[in-house]
Design brief:
The structure holds two protein chains of two kinds.
Chain A: H1 3-24, H2 27-47, H3 55-84, H4 88-92, H5 98-127, H6 132-157, H7 166-178, H8 195-198, H9 202-214, H10 230-251
Helix pairs in contact in A: 1-5, 2-3, 2-5, 3-5, 3-6, 3-7, 3-9, 5-6, 6-9, 6-10, 9-10
Chain B: E1 2-14, E2 20-32, E3 36-40, H1 47-54, E4 62-67, E5 70-71, H2 76-80, E6 83-86, H3 98-108, H4 113-126, H5 142-154, E7 160-164, H6 172-187, E8 191-196, H7 199-205, E9 208-213, E10 216-221, H8 223-229, E11 234-238, H9 244-247, E12 251-256, E13 259-264, H10 269-279, E14 283-287, H11 290-298
Parallel strand pairs in B: 3-8, 3-9, 6-7, 7-8
Antiparallel strand pairs in B: 1-2, 1-4, 4-5, 9-10, 11-13, 11-14, 12-13
The chains are: A mainly alpha, B alpha/beta.
The complex binds adenosine-5'-diphosphate and magnesium ion.
The site of magnesium ion (MG) has 4 residues of chain B, from helix 1.
């Protein structure tokens, strides 16, 4: 098959594995909304009255949380199709290339997350209006974060032989990416000498970049000063995405050992 | 030309705690192009392992397999365009109907809208899936889910079709319908390798079969040759009046209800039938069944787990 038809295969997989199920069980969307909205709700109730400036941080956090958890969905769905349904097999033993399968699955996860992401963007636009340029940067950040999270999810999924082992690992890894680092809260609230530690987690770069684009700031600048440089965020986000995507295509166990 | 050639194919699985399982032990096999070939063997004999290696899904420990003259390890991407696999214990997509399964899979594999459409309707009809074609798989019985998977793979008309226990869980009527479509696939030029532990399936469907046991091929040929190639090639069924113990010296004995079945040599027939007449006991003479031939060859019944 040509490259064009490989891309078409990926879209086709997104259609029947993402969009059709979404249309037939809309409850799947509710599941994606639930956690980030609860975080946002608590933030609003606890912090809202005293610090209204924090609300856009929380909403941006909701956007990134929904995007990052597409990776957890990817981990679970890829493992499920491979281990419980033996369906990865029918794509491996076919003209579909590994990358097309990976992309098709990742696009399916994006389809599940898209309603939540869209709604958060809408709320953000109401609370904290922004221009088209900012929206484009925001979409770029979402795109890279999605690619980073889903390739990471796929990569991890290939190392398991039992579905039962995956659930705690996925929750652990993606909570570490989406809850622990400054996704819902400003990085400046971390004690100054620990601020660098937040940048060990790749999602921090995405979050910081989105905030720079949106012009959100809170508290004093981070230390060391490097941690405030937009190019550093871009480098971190692009670098970690490239790393996971590269690892996923190199190490993924397409043929069982 | 051979569609598949396996040479000294060996697979050792490394399990938890360094446990090693020898699943294939130096298998040599050739399957001619356009043939309908069956692997017959007990659970755990190594059938799935062979299919997975040949279908580019699993790496062998040693030895090699080639399809249409090309090594499956070296030329996997190219070979994958020419194969399709029904995985063992596969399950369809939850939210898709049988019609969508067939159509979408054809499209994913690169078929155009029109030909995919026509082919889908053809296969749905041939597989008897019409009444269920619009129902989501999650609401279908296990047998219908399996038929959906087989339909989507057979629809591809790939040059090499691997079917791992394709009729598992189907009723006898559905199985015959599936056999018909599998035969059609070979008539159109596909080579088919299927595994089964249904003896009637191997006997009625395949042109040739291989009996595999403990990772080795014990027999390769036609079902009827298998039955006649055995040392004990006749089957004597005795009514009451004979005990298993006294018949044991003549061959393999097993008891079926109040009858005692003996698989033995032709040369013993006269003596034993005369003895039965003397005792006034019934005796029936016939050819061994494939089930008995298997038992003779492997030493265990096919239903017994390895
Ligand atoms: N992934 C695996 N890890 C370890 N052992 C395995 C694995 N898959 C199969 N086996 C073992 O290899 C042998 C052959 O299995 P298999 O090829 O599935 O047989 P069959 O398909 O004939 O039932 C069995 O003993 C089985 O337990
Ligand atoms: Mg098997």
């Amino acid at each position: 098959m040509t490259r064009g038809s490989q891309a078409y295969s990926a879209l086709r997989i997104c259609w029947f594995n993402g969009l059709i199920p979404l249309w037939r069980s809309p409850l799947l969307v509710a599941a994606v909304f639930l956690t980030p909205f609860s975080f946002l709700f608590f933030l609003f109730v606890i912090e809202g009255p005293t610090n209204p400036g924090l609300l856009p941080f929380g909403i941006t956090g909701g956007i990134l949380f929904s995007t990052l958890f597409a990776g957890n969905g990817m981990l679970n769905d890829c493992a499920y199709l491979r281990l419980e349904r033996q369906l990865q097999t029918i794509f491996v033993a076919s003209p579909v290339r590994p990358f097309s399968y990976l992309l098709g699955m990742a696009l399916s996860e994006l389809a599940f997350a898209a309603p939540a992401i869209g709604l958060f963007i809408l709320i953000l636009a109401l609370v904290h209006p922004f221009g088209l340029g900012t929206l484009l940067v925001l979409l770029g950040v979402i795109g890279l974060t999605w690619l980073m999270a889903t390739t990471l999810g796929f990569l991890i999924s290939t190392f398991f032989r039992q579905l039962r082992e995956i659930w705690p690992i996925g929750t652990l890894i993606f909570s570490t990416l989406a809850i622990l680092p400054p996704i819902f809260y400003p990085a400046s609230v971390i004690p100054a000498r620990w601020q660098w530690a937040a940048f060990l987690v790749p999602s921090t770069y995405a979050s910081q970049l989105a905030r720079v684009a949106l012009g959100l700031s809170f508290g004093s600048p981070l230390t060391p000063p490097l941690l405030n440089a937009p190019w550093f965020y871009v480098l971190g986000l692009v670098g970690s995405t490239a790393l996971f995507a590269g690892l996923a295509s190199a190490l993924s166990r397409w043929r069982e050992p | 030309m051979d569609a598949l050639v396996a040479e000294s194919l060996t697979k050792v699985y490394l399990g938890r705690g360094r446990r090693r399982t020898l699943a294939l032990d130096g298998v040599d096999l050739r399957i001619g192009k356009g043939k309908l070939f069956a692997f017959l063997g007990r659970n755990g004999a190594g059938k799935t392992t062979f299919i997975k290696i040949a279908a580019t899904l699993l790496a062998p420990t040693s030895g090699r397999v080639s399809l249409f003259g090309e090594d499956v390890l070296a030329h996997a991407p190219r070979l994958r365009e020419q194969i399709a696999v029904v995985p063992q214990e596969g399950r369809p997509f939850f939210h898709l109907t049988p019609r969508e399964h067939v159509y979408e899979y054809l499209r994913v594999r690169g078929a155009g809208a029109e030909s995919a459409h026509a082919r889908t309707e053809e296969v749905i009809a041939a597989m008897g899936l019409e009444p269920y074609a619009g129902i989501q798989a999650q609401a279908l019985s296990g047998g219908l889910q399996q038929r959906t998977l087989v339909a989507m793979i057979l629809a591809t008309e790939a040059p090499f079709l691997f079917l791992d226990e394709p009729t598992l869980g189907m009723d006898p009527f559905a199985r015959r319908q599936v056999w018909k479509v599998i035969r059609q696939a070979t008539r159109k030029g596909s080579t088919v390798l299927l595994t089964t532990h249904y003896l009637d399936e191997a006997e009625h469907l395949s042109e040739e079969l291989a009996v595999i046991e403990a990772g080795r091929i014990r027999y390769r040929g036609t079902a009827s040759d298998l039955k006649s190639s055995l040392a004990r090639e006749v089957r004597l069924e005795f009514g009451p009046g004979f005990t298993a113990e006294e018949l044991t010296p003549f061959g393999r004995v097993y008891v079926e209800g109040d009858r005692t079945v003996l698989l033995t040599r032709r040369s013993a027939v006269r003596e034993l039938t005369e003895l039965a007449l003397e005792r006034g006991s019934e005796v029936a003479l016939g050819p061994v069944t494939l089930e008995e031939a298997f038992l003779e060859l492997v030493g265990r019944p096919i239903e017994e787990e390895a």
